[in-house]
Write a structure and sequence with these properties.
Layout (H helix, E strand, L loop, with lengths): L24 E3 L3 H10 L3 E3 L3 E8 L5 H16 L9 E8 L3 E5 L7 H9 L10 H11 L11 E7 L8 H9 L2 E7 L5 H7 L8 E3 L3 H13 L4 E3 L5 E27 L6 E26 L14 E5 L3 E7 L18 E8 L5 H19 L6 E8 L3 E5 L7 H9 L10 H11 L13 E8 L8 H9 L2 E8 L3 H8 L5 E4 L2 H5 L2 H9 L4 H4 L3 E8 L6 H15 L9 E8 L3 E5 L7 H9 L10 H11 L13 E7 L8 H9 L2 E8 L5 H7 L5 E4 L9 H12 L16 E5 L2 E5 L4 E2 L5 E2 L22 E6 L3
Parallel strand pairs: 3-4, 3-6, 6-7, 7-8, 14-15, 14-17, 17-18, 18-19, 20-21, 20-23, 23-24, 24-25
Antiparallel strand pairs: 1-10, 2-9, 4-5, 10-11, 12-13, 13-30, 15-16, 21-22, 26-27, 28-29
Helix pairs in contact: 2-3, 2-7, 4-5, 8-9, 10-11, 16-17, 18-19, 19-20
Amino acid sequence: MPPFLLLETICIFLFSRVPPSLPLQEVHVSRETIGKISVASKMMWCSAAVDILFLLDGSNSVGKGSFERSKHFAITVCDALDISTERVRVGAFQFSSTPHLEFPLDSFSTQQEVKAKIKRMIFKGGRTETGLALKYLLNRGFPGGRNASVPQILVIVTDGKSQGHVALPAKQLKEKGVTVFAVGVRFPRWEELHALASEPREQHVLLAEQVEDATNGLFSTLSNSAICSSTTPDCRVEAHPCERRTLEMVREFAGNAPCWRGSRRAPAVLAAHCPFYSWKRVFLAHPATCYRTTCPGPCDSQPCQNGGTCVPEGLDGYQCLCPLAFGGEANCAPKLSLECRVDLLFLLDSSAGTTLDGFLRAKAFVKQFVQAVLSEDSRARVGVATYSRELLVAVPIGEYQDVPDLVRSLDGIPFRGGPTLMGSALRQAADRGFGSATRTGQDRPRRVVVLLTESRSEDEVAGPARHARARELLLLGVGSEAVRAELEEITGSPKHVMVYSDPQDLLNQIPELQGKLCSRQRPGCRTQALDLVFMLDTSASVGPENFAQMQSFVRSCALQFEVNPDVTQVGLVVYGSQVQTAFGLDAKPTQAALLRAISQAPYLGGVGSAGTALLHIYDKVMTVQRGARPGVPKAVVVLTGGRGAEDAAVPAQKLRNNGISVLVMGVGPVLSEGLRRLAGPRDSLIHVAAYTDLRYHQDVLIEWLCGEAKRPVNLCKPSPCMNEGSCVLQNGSYRCECRDGWEGPHCENRFLRGDAPKARGSHAEGQQPYPSQQLQRRPGH
């Protein structure tokens, strides 16, 4: 068969431009860290004796626009240089077809002169002869420089698309002691930049398009050699994972189409199917490590209280995004007195195990505490008791209202020695340590026992501790590391224990103790904005009696919050033979309705799956469609006996990754491994021995919820945008970018083809994301 000439048609499709929103380099850190990198780039200063030569690519492949950005990068670097004839000297070359000296290193002695000269540089165009420029420097050195008497730094700004070889001359320059930074511009070819740069290459390859990130990277590397340093001593260089992208042309098979084949010998033309190809530009990713300097920021101290979100502004300013109840106060802080109404009994170990020195340390702590905390108008009443073989109430509650008289009475309390019968002392303190007052309920002050000891008990403590907690006493422990475990058993929570290492460290616990005494009575938690969902195990392994205990516990917890659509919303999910939403977040807007609904929640029985229930909360409860509020902290409390939790770790982490805190209350004598995995990396777990003991752990749960409610929130987690819309943070608020066919602030409205769509996006600029979020600014100092 005679050969045929195959005529193939190739279709070429070229994208005229690349989406500008896709960065060519991305450092994988939080938005807060990105801001810190930007700020730190303005806090660097280079004052050592050094010669810095800029080699700017002025070829046609770079173009005039990117050349201007190269100049801007060089000018920004100069802002941090102490330019003078004795310290930092700066020169500049422009290269394209040939290298051109713009000005030598000894031309200018001030920062203003150098920046003005760089600004006046004119784009030349031509071929990209990077290798020719490097050979020029090899042969003639740094013009106007000080040779090898000072460090020599070459900063090459190029797209990496040289029309000659660059590896050999770059290697020879580096062998002569020149430090080479390769800074990409436009769509750089990263492999050539790596060939140009000094070792370690990850620290000497940058991107000029991101000028603040590039200057930070340059100065971070130079700080290792003491050429540059930060103006703030607490700044540090850290490694971050990052990704660099290269724009490449690739050919893709587009399918077959009819074509015609002909032959020189035969006059006929035959029809056939021929392959068609398309060409397009794609980004290829290159994983890397970026070294950047960050400095302590104004938000590191978390100045915004009660769930406010801190947004940095400049070097030392910030703004607080506050919930409604605290929008008018500084840093979202309520106007509260530090005093609280409490009857406080200090229980001091006076046994031989603690020794006389330990007893004197405890007395000194009590004296310093009352002098620091109590005042004439204080509503706290203090008593002191000691124990060894038996309890002795040395100072009855409220006997002394005058602080100096109270301190003098403490001096007269003797050390007794004897066995350490802590359990007996706890039971006696609960029965007679607070007198015979008959006040109950809201009329009675909070009653607290603070146990100070350095020795383990010689009798059983678990039963007396439960007896004390059953009488509504808050137990707090202060002791050495040796008694930490026993104090945690007595108080019922690690958060109720303060451990010290030396006498001064003991005195440092005074502010923490004061905070624990008054924490429950601060309205900053009761009025905290929060979306809270309780998830109850109602499987057959729990049983209806224990389910009733859980209902009672949830009702008691709900009383600690102000339930209304602007402050705290509460939802309830039960799971057993199935998963059921007893009521959603926005279903019960008042506390009375909420309490009734908790009592009416169904007991399901059957076999439960905690993982399925958590996914149900993720998909059908903690969503904007079901009442979740953007910008409001969110938490899920799981109450379970532990069975059916084997599949729950991954769904729980999915909730946490979406900005929703998860706490597990595991009930039973032993915690299963599944529950420990469910608790997550932050160990968000409360161990309860029996369902009847749930009430003793309410304070710990409320404290945890208050802490979670005060953590910073991400307005886009969970996403408030419906129907697969994308949430974008913007100017302290957010906006929703809707898919085709959807519109509205949260992409909640569908429009038909042919209808005139309304503004398909989102919150207008400056609009608040939710009524409970107000913006509060604090200027920099």
